[in-house]
Batch of 3 targets.
Target 1
Amino acid sequence: MIEINSKQRKYLEKLAHDLQPVVIVGGAGLTDGVLKMTKNSIASHELLKVKFNEYKDEKVELTNQICEYCDANLIRIIGNVAILYKPAEKEDDRKIFLD
C-alpha cells in the first residue's frame, strides 16, 4: 500500500463520486469469488466502490480484509459503500496520478 495524504484522499473521493459500485457484498458475505473479483477490478480500474447490501455492521472489518487481500488503500467508507484505490503496477498503465 502507498501512503495517501488528506489532499490526495479528497481528490480520489471526488473522482469516485460518479462511480457505480463494481463489487457488492451480499448474503454470502466475503467469499473467495468476491475477493478475486475485487482484486481483478481494482487492477484494471485503480479506483472502485464496494457496496455492502448485507453485513453492514461488519463493513469496516470486511473492508480491511479486502484491502489487505488486494493490497489496496481504503479511501473512505461513506454509508454502506467503501472507496478503494490501488495504483496500476506499471506507470504506463496508470489512469490516476497523485501529486
Note: The chain has a mean pLDDT of 93.
Target 2
Amino acid sequence: MNDMEKKYMLAAYQEALKAFKEDEVPIGCVIVKDGEVIARAHNKKVKKNCAVYHAEIECMIKAARKLSNWNLKGCDLYVTLEPCMMCTGAIVNSRIDNIYYGCKDPKGGALVSNIRFKRIKGLNHYPGMRGGIMKEECSELLKAFFKNKR
C-alpha cells in the first residue's frame, strides 16, 4: 500500500465511522479524480429504508452530479469493504478506472470472494482492483458493529 492509497482509504474509513455512529453497517466510500476526492458517502440503507443505498452507489451518484456525467472514466473508487454484486455492476457500468477496497466480504463480495467479476466474459469494462488497504482497521470496525448488534 502506498501513501496515496492509504490517504484515500482513510477518507473512506472516516465515512465508515459516520455510518457506525448512525447505526448503519459501517462501510464508507470516496471517489478520486486527478488526485482530488470528488465524492464521499457511507451506507444509508436504514436511514432511507431502501436496500440500494450502499456507500458505493451513493458515492457514484454524487460523483456523476459533480462531473455532470454518468461516465466516471478517470476516477478511482475507494471503499472499506469489497463491493457486492449490485455495486460491482454499477462500478462496471460507470466505467470507474480502479477499485481499491479494505477487507474482503466472504458473504457478499463480488470482486474476489464469491463472484469473480473479471471471469465474466463480455462485460463492456473491467476496472483494475486492489484489496487489503487498511484491511485490519476496516475489518475491526465491521466486527465491532456486528458484535454490538448481537
Note: The beta strands are 28-33, 36-42, 75-81, 98-103, 128-131.
Target 3
Amino acid sequence: MKIVFAGTPEFARAALEALCAAGHEVVLVLTQPDRPAGRGMQLQASPVKQYALARGIGVIQPRSLRADGRYPDEAQAAQRLLADTPHDVMVVAAYGLILPQAVLDIAPRGCLNIHASLLPRWRGAAPIHRAIAAGDAETGITIMQMDAGLDTGAMLLTRVLPIAPDDTSASLHDRLAVLGGRAIVETLTAAAAGTLVACPQPADGVTYAAKVSREDGVLDWRAPAADLERRVRAFEASAGLRGTPLKIHHAAVRPVGSAATVAPGTVLASGREGILVACGADALLLDILQKPGGKRLAARDFLAGFAVPAGEQFELPVARS
C-alpha cells in the first residue's frame, strides 16, 4: 500500500521501519518540528525524521494541522499536500499533534493508529508508564481506526504482551515498539485481503493515561513499598534527603511486617546491599542511586561518598489533594 506516516519518537520509528521492510511504499512522513536537545541544546531531528531522510522519504514538520489553530497557514499547507499526495492509508504512531477531522477524512482507508495499550484501558499520552505504575499484569498493542475522540476509535487488531516483574518503562517501550511494527504490518495485510473487522471499543473499562509529570516520580513514603517500587520502574523516581533530590534508579520491596513502627521515610538500615527505607507498608531497598550532577551508582559506591545512616529521615512530599 501507499502510506502517509505520522510519528515522532523511537516507538514510531520502529513502526516506520517495519512498514518499509514489509514492502509498503511510504510516500510522505509527518513528524514534529526539530527540538533542542543534548548539552549544547542543538536542534535535533526526531528518530522518525532521521530514518525517513536516510531512506529518501519526503518529510514535513508542521507545528499544527488544525486550520483554526495557532498556525493556520502551516496547517492548510500540510492539508493541501496530503490531499495532493496519492496514498491509500495514513498510519499514525505517537505523532504528538491533534489530527482534525479534515485530515482524518483525506486517506481513502482512513487513519490507523498504533496505540501502546489494550484499549479502552489507558487511552491517552502515557499508557506504558501508567500500566507499570498501576501494577497491570499485561498490556499490548491496539491498532485503531482513528476518529475525532481521544483514542476512542474502533479496534482493528489487538496483540497482548505480558508485563514482566522487572519491566521498566524503557524495557516495556522497546518490546511494545517491536510488537507495534508487527501489528501494523499484519493489519495492513488483512486490510488488503478484505478480512479486517472493526470492533467498537467497549464502554466498560475505560481509563486515561495522563501525560507524565515530574511529580509522578516523587516518592511518597506513606504509600506501600510495592506501589513505590512500581513507581521507580515507571517514572524517573526521586526522593529528597537533606534538601538534595536523589534519583532512584532501582529498588526492591522488603517485607518488614508489624516490626516497623517508625515513621514512613525513616532509614531502617544502610549498607552494601542498599538503603532500606520504611514505607506505609513494608520497606523499600534503594540499591541504585544518583546525586544531582553525579553518576548512577550501586548503593555501596553511592554510600562511600554520601553517608546515609540508619535513623535518618527522607523528606515527605506535600500530600496531593
Note: Residues 211 and 314 are 27 Å apart (CA to CA).
